[in-house]
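Summary for the steering committee. The consortium agreed at its last meeting that each partner would contribute one worked example illustrating the joint modelling workflow. Our contribution is presented below. We chose a case with several input lines so that the handling of multiple components could be demonstrated. No manual editing was applied between input and output; the record is shown as generated.
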Amino acid sequence: MSLDEATLYLTVRELGNRIRAGRLSPVALTEAYLDRLQKIGPRLNAVVTVTRELALQQARDAERDMKAGNNRGPLHGIPYGLKDLVATRGIPTTWGGEPFRKQVFDYDATVTRKLRDAGAVLVAKLAMVEIAGGFGYNNADASFSGPGKTPWNLDYWSGGSSSGPGAAVAAGLVGFTIGSETSGSIITPAAYCGVSGLRPTYGRVSRHGAMALSWTLDKLGPMCRCADDCGLVLAAMAGRDPLDASTVAKPFGHPEAKPAKKYRIAVIKDATTNIMPAVRENFEQSLKVLAKFCDVADAVTFPTMPFGPVVGTIVSAEGASAFRNEIEAGRLKELKTAEMHPAACAASMIGAVDYLQAMRLRSKMQKTMAELYAKYDALIAPARTTVSYPIARNFNESYMEYGFGPPIIQAGNLAGQPALAIPNGFGPNNLPTGIQFTGKAWSEARLLSIAHAYQQATDWHTRRPTL
Amino acid sequence: MQSTNRRRFMKNAALSTAGALLAGAPALAQGQPPPARSQAEVLAEIVRLRFGQHLSEAQLKSTQQRLGRQVATSEQMKRTRLTNGDEPAFVFVPEE
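What follows is the complete predicted structure of the assembly.
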């Protein structure tokens, strides 16, 4: 039985409702997504491996379990994709890079195991920027799978480094995906693909089995068609893991109970200065919607601290250590981005004292950011200052007239704080714009509540690209 | 005189990089101190020693530019004053 496109674009919550009610077969749903991954995935350079046999087996298991009354929860029977840096036993995990194209692990990452235990169906390993863009890249064509394309306009980038996850969700190729962020790699593709992407608090989700670029910055998070779905997926992924000492046993409940008072939010000052007009206009419209259920305080000044140099030093030093074997063997020469290898060699020269300087500054930044966010449920800003970048040009040759705004992404990642990007309109060339909600550590449930309320009052997240 | 200068130079060279050793030798022969080199140049020599077999001349040149930026970043981070009590953002926990 073939399913119509409208069904494939349903939210995870609605798909799950239909599966539990016996109105939708996990097998039929999986077959439909597999078909779409094969047909549309290559047009977006979004897919590395379609896991057909595994998916159909998991779908049959899910259907049988459901009929036997064994309901595993909201993700039971829902097909999903994993960014190809998350280990899957016996299936290639390529890290987006030619040197790792044949890499196969004999174990599953913790996230893979948790989603399997939740009854989700793995349909694909999804494309990404090679080694998560670790040592820098200046063009969308930074993966052996080709430049990731946003489904809204195939001449433009999907964003990275979670390029495949963002595009796959936006194009209705899967029910949800798992991306990762070191410094921007969930928020950026969420913005450029017009989907909802959640970067959890550092330590919320186990990194065991995920490629390490920066041990103290890497985070795995859900990318979905709405904020509510991000909450359902995070609930299945989160939790203390003995295999990842950074994980913390903090409770996470979704959805949270509606608070008695209005949400207290504030705009980050200068976040709309010198940005693309359409991004600013859409953000201002979003504020009007948010004002209906939030107390919007006066703009908050972002701290002036060397966030950029600190995050750059930490990513470079930890990345040079994580990839030391490959750097010294010259294997990074095989990457698509020719500059990545010399950049990695340079990163290998960062001294321990400089790395520790960055980490000591980071302690101060953590305290400052915690104080900044103490009074608010969320601080908000445009997710990115422009729409997506044209694939045909280097990044530093595009949008020269606009700035990058305050270092919100760098600061939030350094502090280990969560952020959620959701779509809020469109700009030039039919490209989506986004708004980001940033919060104090462990406040994902609050951010999801605010975003969910926004999405109940708007319909940007229900729009579909023409493919 | 030349023998004494070489001994002093070798002692200093043991505390500096291999690149400085190579560059300083011609100047020393004339009794002159080695020419001043930037940190980026010296670090680039180490990169050449460690990774040179995997890098073209063009890449070595771009690496030196990157190293210059890294040195500048290091200087920028030093401008925020830290005291002895400012600890890094990680905690070592002994295994039980």
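Chain B is about 60% helix and 0% strand. Residues 1-5, 15-25 of chain B have pLDDT under 50 and may be disordered.
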